[in-house]
Amino acid sequence: MPISRKLEELPKIATREGYGQTLVELGKENENIVVLDADLAAATKTNMFAKAFPDRHINCGIAEANMAGIAAGLAASGKVPFISSFAMFVSGRAYEQIRNSIGYPGLNVKIGASHAGISVGEDGATHQCNEDIALMRSIPGMMIINPSDNIEAQAAVRAAYAHKGPVYMRFGRLAVPVFNDREDYKFELGKGIILREGKDVTVFATGLCVVEALYACDMLAKDGIDVELINIHTIKPLDEALVVSSAAKTGRVFTVEEHSIIGGLGSAVSETLSENCPTKVTRLGMRDVYGVSGPAVELLHKFELDAEGIYHQIKETLKND
Amino acid sequence: MDRLELKKMALNVRKGIVDSIYSAKAGHPGGSLSAADLFTYLYFKELNVDPKHPKMESRDRFVLSKGHTAPGLYAALAYRGFFPVEDLVTLRHVGSYLQGHPDMKCVPGVDMSTGSLGQGLSAAVGMALAGKMDGKEYRVYALCGDGEIQEGQIWEASMFAGHRKLDNLVVIVDHNKLQIDGKVEEVCSPYPIAQKFQAFNFHTITIDGHNFDEIEAAFKEARETKGMPTAIIANTLKGKGVSFMEDIAEWHGKAPKKEEYEVAVEDLRKEGEALCR
């Protein structure tokens, strides 16, 4: 299978590292930042902040609902709290606290959700959250950023801090290729990034699936399929103008995400296109199923969300068009 | 404000509760009335607040964790001067800022949006923690229901507050013994309440929540208690002040009809007359 050697040679870093590092950098510049954890500071990488600023790190113990509420109270008192846990526990367990104590009053709380998706790996289905984007999208005023690599994760954390209001940031456990390390990389909240222009189909990808889709595009190009690949790091608000213009150009759309095909990027793109530019959309992601235990890379392969799986799914689907 | 004035103000607050809920044709009179003396004492004696500067940084914070009793909070805020008393009757009307449950974005003097039981105390804990981190003098008060403490989040917040020794935090439990479905001890007993808070490293004080001397003494004791948060268990009567609502679970969450409203107003008027004698 022909994969660009250059991509293969890229260093691999988990996006949660970027979260931890950037919090430390922001913490030096901004006294009002406080970081909250629910006994997972080592896993969410916020232990770096805890070490640098022990007085501004608040471990709430294993009590995510209370952590979200405490953050609301801190934000109401002028702090900028970042609450951190696994995506499953912070978006799932504390959903209603985020909705009612943070979202409804519009408090300036940032949610750092690590270990999202099936790439959690061996811990299995109870810890693999494929529903968090769906949950968070439904909260009015919630911004959602799902960075694709460590560079983008760092930019996302800075942008989240600069934005006034609640932001949900989705990070992964798995070390993934750092492909945004280039001079012309520019992160703008709410703006998709065209990684490759094409005329046959558009692929909207998010999170760790972006780099996998990049590999898949190379394979599809060799088969004569010219793909336009767009990185959607901000899922809400969605870059509707870009989604519509690219769909209008190619007339065929795929979405790729390490998340359920219900309620995530696939839904957001489908909703926008249904209303503005009806286009056939195929959603690649978790097909309304739970994950299983296993090494992350093997799971991405099993659920066809690695380059080979994305390539195969797009190729086969287009055959039947 | 002396005892008599406090009692008269509490009657105003009760009248505001009855008027606003009658006008809204919906709301929660029982728990608003049981906490009316607590609301009155807090806003007219205890809290360092300024109606002209509702966001004053040094203010004491109040979180109504039992947010459904907003009519009591709104009445106290209105009489304290945060907004016009005449606005109370817009409660729950489309277009009114007086939402069914407190909304900090649009009601002057409301420090936290609440309504979903169990959540307000965590926010109060966050405010108390911020005060400690910044060396601020302000104190934080949270009012919970005795049914509300069935929520697990109350105990997560209490564990944290005790652990962090937040002595700038006072939790008041409006212990009126009733919740929507009946007696708290029959629905799912929260007893023993004081011992539970003690086990979470709180100082506890049990009082008659309708006796201003006891309320005053309890808040004083709370201020003097160092190294741990205080929980005040206030024994109250649900529906207090309106004869046919007293100690009846059914009046947890419904509005009086016209004839009932007239009886309620008459009850409060007579009480006022008695105070003037």
- Strand percentage of chain A lies at 15-25%
Write down how many β-strands of chain B occur, each being a DSSP E stretch of 2 or more residues.
Answer: 7
Gap from first CA to last CA of chain B: 18 Å
| SS content category of chain A | alpha/beta
Structural class of chain B: alpha/beta
Low-confidence parts of chain A lasting 5 or more residues at pLDDT below 50? none
Biggest interface between chains = A-B, 29 and 34 residues
Spell out the helices and strands of chain A N to C: HEHEHHEHEHHEHEHEEEEHEEHEHEHH
Q: How much helicity do the residues of chain B have?
A: 40-55%
Q: Specify the biggest β-sheet of chain A.
A: 7 strands, mixed
Q: Strand sequence of the main sheet of chain A, in spatial order? A: 3-2-4-5-7-6-12
**Helix and strand sequence of chain B:** HHHEHHEHEEEHHEHEH
Global geometry of chain A: globular
Order of strands across the biggest sheet of chain B? 1-2-3-7-6
Structure notes:
The complex is a heterodimer of chains A (321) and B (277). Helix content of chain A is 41%, strand content 20%. In chain A, helix 12 links the parallel strand 13 and strand 14. In chain A, helix 2 runs parallel beside helix 9, helix 5 runs parallel beside helix 7 and helix 10 packs across helix 14. The longest helix of chain A is centred in the first third of the chain and has 15 residues. With 277 residues, chain B is α/β, with parallel strands linked by helices. In chain B, helix 1 packs across helix 4. The two termini of chain B are 18 Å apart.
